[in-house]
Model the fold of this input.
Amino acid sequence: MKGAGAALRHDSALKHTTGEARFADDLAEAAGTLHAALVLSDVAHGTLLSLDTEAARAMPGVVAVLGPRDIPGANDIAAIGQAEPLFADPLVEFAGQPLALVVATTRDAALLGAAAVRAGITPLEPVLSIERALELDQHVVAPQTMARGDAARAIAAAPRRMEAEFRAGGQEHFYLEGQVAIASPGEDGEIAVVASTQHPSEVQHVVARVLGGACNGVTVTCRRMGGGFGGKESNASWVAAAAALAARHTGRPVKLRLARRADMIATGKRHPFLYRWTAGFDDQGRVLGLQALLAADGGWSLDMSGGVVFRAITHALNCCDVADVSVTGCAVKTNTVSHTAFRGFGGPQGALLMEDVVHRIAAACRLPPEEVRARNFLGAAGKGEETPYGQKVEGDLIARVWAEAKRDSDWDRRRGEIAAFNATHPTLRRGLGSMVLAFGISFGVMHLNQAGALVHVYSDGSIRLAHGGTEMGQGLFVKVAQVVCDVFGVDLDRIAITATSTAEVPNTAPTAASTGSDLNGWAAHNAAQTIKGRMAEVAARRFGIAVEAVVFADNRVWAEQAGGNRFLEFAELAKLCFLERVSLSSTGFYRTPDIHWDRATMRGEPFFYFSYGAAVSEVIVDTLTGEHRCLRTDIVQDCGRSLNPAVDRGQIEGAFVQGMGWLTCEELWWDGQGRLRTVGPSTYKIPGSRDVPPIFNVRLLEGAPARSETIFRSKAVGEPPVLLAISVANALKDAIGVPALDLPATPERVLMALRGDGEKIARD
Amino acid sequence: MATAIGFLLNGRQVSLPPGTSPTTSLLDWLRGPGALPGTKEGCAEGDCGACTVVLEAGDGARTPINACLTLLGQVHGQAIRTVEGLRGADGSPHPIQRAMAESDGTQCGFCTPGIVMTAWAHAREGGEVHEALAGNLCRCTGYRPILDVFATLADDAAATPVLPAPQAACFEAPGQVFHRPVTLAALLALRAAHPQAWLLAGGTDLGLRVSDHRERPAEVICLLGVPELHALRAMPDGIEAGAAVPYARLLALFRQEPGFAPFATLLARLGSRQIRGLGTLGGNLGTASPIGDALPPLLALGASVTLASSRGTRVLAVADFLRGYRVNDLAPDEVVVSVSLPRPDPADIFVCEKISKRHDQDIATVGAAFRLRLASDRVAEAWLAFGGVGPMAARAKRAEAALAGRRLDADALEAAASALASDIAPLSDWRGTAAYRLMVAQGLLRRLHLRASRPDLPADVAGYDP
Done:
């Protein structure tokens, strides 16, 4: 029996490698399926006066051209709050905004039709930078401040003070499978949607809203995604809504699959940030007071920017403590695509603030940044263990992960070796950098911290498991199945893992915020536990013992103890339950206990617990060209008592490399008209295999079960390790001897920083 | 003359119905009519590798290619294997498929079929692992488990296909004609008759127009069946390469031939293994893109091209062949037949450079190739060629002049770097600002000094061994 804690492989692994695993676009198309393509604005800001669709309608194969007037319900695909139109009407707010949808008998006909639609747009002045939006005071999330003490006074009273400004770019998700949805009309106005989505319930809501119907007429399923990373949270909903609209109009199944270019232009990305801060500190590098502004580029609409700002603010001090602090966060409104969830959800951007503070202050004090950071750790001498918003963290774990990473990386010896190399090589410079993280786990939006599951045991002892979580490659399905195995004491092959469906588990949260296994694991546990209780009663009667003495283990149900004389095969007992008319089906529900947040005071305990981790990275830089490489990384990551160490290691490695991409080579580039010009892998460079550190040591923190009551004392791991990639950016600063480095640290930014004009890279 | 497209697919002969568009991408065909959706579309521009399939040659060679860039007319007479074709006769997964699954080499699984096919080819072909994987992007795993599997691959010694001898073919579909001549004379006659037709060799540029931009060309002349364009010969004074020789073959030869190692190092970074399996020098010259990786070395070597038409043949220096931004000297009825690459003198300093955001499979922000001939310690002749810093790849004549007659010391290269500022006129775009491009081009001259003066030291980050 291999339940929780076993390093089982991904349940679909062999199907992935043989090509059998079916993604949405791989499913055989129903007869009569139509294909849709989007008409996108190429103007960043303007008023849509006309849409000339005549040429498109006349093209062979084109069945319909649909715009805002064709929407039976609301032209609104907002995830939260305010109206965000599916099709611009009449205000166009970014280059790439959907204007209409062309439906045709083939995908090519739809794409050619879409290219033939002419939009008449009267241009308005676009706002294309965070700075300009701040000047205009235009926001999608108004400034909000988390404060403790009197930062201004502490800064004024401090022996030294410093002001700085820096930027971090956004990030394209670049899930390998692009956005796709297939909508099929049924009887009585029903719509069945197969979507690549992290949030089937939201797809359901948005489809129902756009069609003007009720949720019970919309069924959404998702077996798996080819990657999500947050990009298929809110953005999957409008893609599905467009497909559903076309299905409603034509009465035929419609597939909308975005080409990579359209996907990159029309869907949101990680928020770029601008940071401005003032700190007061002493000669030992202790930060005594800090005032900071974190301004996210929200893009044209709210989307989920509120949550991103919340997480950026709550993670701005990361693992550090500053007694007197005031952090203001906002998301400005610009005429760019609406930025959205991306692994870490503002947490990585928040954590960059304190790293910038630490590195610049360390340079000013002529101290190693690691020493400065450690002196400011939560729980360090003279520092508290409570975040400015009032939640206590485990300072001992912060100190511990850093100590272990430092030891694993052989820090002191390598510092000397690197110094010797740098003293002799004429142009190459090596550098060592580190990162320590404390990442809060739970959704910032309280009501999302819930999950449901549905478990059936059939009379032959086989088990069917459904829950609200979605599989995007992170191994959620196998982890939750392991939980159910553990409850029933059975092997994994007894459990059928099924597609996520709103028909089986309703009203779910997105699979996001690293909470997938925490929430769905508990929900499935609770469902299984209910059934197990009923089965145990039947077994107890059969054995003539107390219910408490029934033991489920090794695919059997034992009297008194596993391995004893008296047992029933699990299947036998299931059959017995059926014959005795005992229900073998149950839902399960879970909501995260004890968390709360007061928006008015910006205080509370919004996180169920914190995840901790530390990393050390080494880089080498060519001072002639700015080219660089990461040579080695050592990671220690806290996963509590891991549900599946193999899956967790994969999450750590993948998150780190993805974070490295964000911080080093992935650059979004908009032209002067606000058009994104990095619209495919030929122009937008995610890490390749050579970019992974050739020495890459990843270790799960040992002997550290979660202290809160998580599922089997495990901890979430999807997002926190993204922050560990900041160690690479820090190593680059060390190598070039300049603490000020805008991100992503492309060879160009590194060279410019070296030459002393690294503050800004001009946009043409 | 064949009129129906036919090829071996997973060991079975497939013959496509008449009227099938010969410019349908292999990927669209596999996922549609072919009913083999294991091969995925990730980008439709030949960069992500999710659509990787393997071209199986009659000699057993396995070339991974991007199915998104490959047109049906191109694979006529060839053998293709997809992820569905790797299972054993009893239906059991291939050992590579098992290994990838058991080593946690998959997360979302979308890139996996392409990676499995790259692995299957690599198991036979060998070579450096990152070079093999450069054309396959994975967004989930961070590659570590995939690299572990690649480190232990074993060739399965599976049988090689028997391929038919090439014969002339012409495929027609509504509004389209696709010619596949098998003699140079026939090619030149077709070219004279159809000056508007696409000349298709590897298709890494034209395939993109079909796959990504959904163009449907009316006329195509495919160069793959013409033996003269596939000739590749090494001679004492240099290499003669047919215009349609894929980079992969060129790279293999460069690695063996004295004097060409620096060019080989650069070619190993041109596109990916998939792109090099298709892409050709002739194509790079034909598009005359200012960022063609191979162009600066051709200029630095003093290479020449042989052009042919029914009117006759002429030979032109590459420097004279390139005329401007995506403009070359090719007449409407002409084709590039071959390229002559003079062998550098053993005493020459020859260096090829490429600066890009990512080391592998990226387009150059700045490309460069330098060749210096020294006589009694002084620069007798200098060829300094750059790409990506102007409308076309070109030599930097002022910088060359600044070096002439000087010792190759830091001062001389500083002088060349200063002069370079008036040689080049880079633009700003998503790959880099004009200021950065100039700075880097100058930096590459300084790096040349380091390479020449301190061969004992790693000169760049790629050359540093941790």
The CA atoms of residues 175 and 227 of chain A lie 5 Å apart.
